[in-house]
Amino acid sequence: MSTRSAGVSGERVFVTGGASGLGRAIAERFARERARVCIVDLNDERGEETKKALERLGARDTIYAHVDVRDEDAIEAAAKKLDDTWGGVDVVVNNAGVAQAGAIDAVSIDDWRWIVDINLLGVVRGCRVFVPRMKKQRSGHIVNVSSMAGLLDVPYMSSYNATKAAVVSLSETLQNELREHGIGVSVACPSFFKTNLGESMRTPDPTLHARMQKLLDRGTLTADDVAEEIHEAVRKRSFYVLPHRDGRVAWALKRALPRSVYAALAARQMRAVSGAKR
Known about the structure:
With 278 residues, this protein is of the alpha/beta class. Helices cover 52% and strands 13% of the residues.
């Protein structure tokens, strides 16, 4: 493994969706260790503002680039720039994501394609671009940001749940596949916390948007709390990052209880938290 380790000055970190929300919090956590941080995003105004914030926190050689994770060539171009300026990358955080809510018969197939292209294939593209580089340097760590939605099954969010479950499965596979190359893998599965995920949300039912925002606003952890746990997972090279206690409990119940019992409890809890009457 490389002599660089997470939390040590000199770490080279790449974060997608890094201009706001959890991505920014992750970038800031590494910046406090005087890491070199590259954030990519679609919002240039936020990206440039976040770049300045990272520099104030102590990040060195900070870079912002306009990159759409649906464009593998754009990710490759960013990686090439980091090869030229930093000589490589130590930590890749595939964080960029969007939200989609709606009943299975209400969400259009175009919206399914949209969320799969970003939430799943965006992660795949990030891995495809950086894994060959990490194999050559025989070191590195990949963090794929999923969600407790990838382990549980929140009603009326089938497309979101499916993409996040796929990210969990992809990450589990990569952990097995990349271990012999000295590359670590973590998958982060936070529950609801205050973030701007609702900005990108698509839904045919406006009431679902309001319910989602209500759940986000009720979150007991902050983006900084989740970022701290992700940073710690990279440092310890641990796999699952499950910051929310209630999420861990729900996952344990799902695995232990008969499906019929778990589904009834989950539906009741969802109605209690969101105020839904369905």
